[in-house]
Each structure stands twice: as structure tokens, then as C-alpha cells.
Amino acid sequence: VFPSLAQAQASVANEVYQELGQPSVFLFCPTEYCSSLCTPSPSQSCYLQTIGQELLPGIGVIWTGPKVVSQELSAVLLEEVEAVLRRRPVIWDNLYANDYDCRRVFLGPYMGRAPGLMARLHGLLLNPNCELQANFIPVHTLGTWFQSELGSCARPDPAGTEAGAALGDGQGAQDGSYSPQEALEVALRDWVAEINQQASEPGG
Known about the structure:
204 residues; alpha/beta; TIM Barrel; four-stranded parallel sheet; 37% helix; OGA GlcNAcase; beta-N-acetylglucosaminidase activity; GH; Glycosyl_Hydrolase_84; O-GlcNAcase_cat
């Protein structure tokens, strides 16, 4: 019936979206959901070009970055994806995901995401560790990163560059940018306080 997989997927997704009354949040995960799965690249992918053309504009498209588990996300890469999808992507962030390797648990701060990234996103989903308690620092530091992003949106960089901070290390709280190390220290203090509170409760 359809000349390509992309056209089939877009047609079905569009029909479901319309049948549900075009909800404000409706997400579509493409078969090529990161750069490493695209042939030959996101901007040159016939599949993504078709998805961008055929998918109704109110449907959000999920993207994980350069890889399935992306250590870094940059605005430059997201601009390429936005251009081919004809919409800002919803990042499905697998930085902490360990469902593919239960020996791996990432307890570090949210990092590797360029400052000013939120302006290039339609949304962000964090895929957590499978172990519930191991997600305190990831969620806490994600909140700190998001607060810094809200602040940067209020005072955009006049040069329009990412030179304000490196992907892994912000300048720190003194200039309003995100510092993974400072975010980690705050999260650890709050986590210890939470553990102590639970320990002091009856049956703790």
C-alpha cells in the first residue's frame, strides 16, 4: 500500500493523532532515532526527510542524539535534526539508562549537554537507571540544569554561541551557568539529608 516504511509510519501516526483529537502531547519515535542509525546522515536520510514532510506538525518526534546513549548533545547537531524533521525534537535522554547492561549504574551529575540547549528542544525525557534509589542524583541535577537553562533563556547569549561553557563543565553558579560539579555537591548534600531522615523514622 505504501511506497516506503516512513510513509507508512507517518500515515498511521497521523491517523491515530487525528482520531485522538490532536492531543497537545503526542510523541512519535522514528526508526532512525539517532545519528548513528541514519543513512548516511540525519540531513541526508530519505527516511527522516519523509517523516519530516509527511508527519503532521503537531506530532513531537523523539531523538536520542548522536548515539542511542549520547555522552554529549550540542546545539549544532540539534539544528541539523530540526531542519530535516521540520520541528524541534523531543530528546529521549539515555545518559543514565542501564536496562541494556545491569552492571552499569551511572551516579554522576547530569552533564555533557551544551548550555542553551533547551531553546533547540520541544521537550526532554530522561530515561533513568532501573534501580529506583540510584536516580536521586540524576533527577536532582537534571532539575538544577533545567533551572540554569530557564535562566539562560531569560538572558540569551548576544553572540549566539556556545562559548559560555564547555559541554561537561559550566563556569559555575557565579555567572548563572550550569556546573555539573556544583550540582553534584548540592545533590549529595540533599541525598544524605534524605537518607538520614529516613533512617531516623520508625522502622528506618
